[in-house]
Amino acid sequence: MNNLQTAILVGGRGTRLKSLTDNLPKPMVSTQGRPFLEILLGLLQSKGLSRFLLLTGYLNTAISDYFGNGSKFGIHIEYSVEPEPLGTAGALRNAENLLEKEFLLLNGDTFSDIDYDEFIKSSKNRNNICSMLCYNGPLFDEVRYNLILGRNYAIIDYSKTSTDKRFNAVDAGLYFMRKDILSVIKNRVSSLEGEIFPFLISAKQLYGFTTQVMFYDIGTIDRLNGFNKMFLSKKTYNQEF
Fold it and tell me: What single DSSP character describes residue 101?
């Protein structure tokens, strides 16, 4: 695999996890006795990825003190620190000097055991600025379709609140991006979901890569419990990650 730089959004406050994030960033919440972020990095390492840029914010030193430069985990880690909450797109813009020409971006509270090599190869073969992992399998838990995949996997609409019956896939929190995306992020505080993705759709620069592999996030207590249950049931996960 081409070992792309992998940026991970880990700056969120995680208010829906209540007291669990009073003294910890959301990705550092314990899952089976280890921070969720450690398990996520283990998954990515097993996929051939080893160069990480952590986009930190809230209680950032809890992450950097634990992981350091990544050497004790067999990986390399750099850090970008938000001086205040900048949003998902603002965090990218803040890391401009550290981002490479092409990179993966992940939500730091999401776990998706897909074929990353296939996702990267497919994304590289397109000339668009951003490709998004899109789950189009059966709905589960509180997950709802939030985008429309059109012909040739072009994403033609994106909304987390729409009830449009044409919506047929879910943003699964993994993206292949070219650094050109920074030219679209005009505001210091900015959201990928609310501002940048709609712009890329209008410019025909956002495409999907579909999967029916279930993804997990730890954004709420129920989802954290669901991830823990899944993780315990997978013996290989406990051995490898």
Answer: S
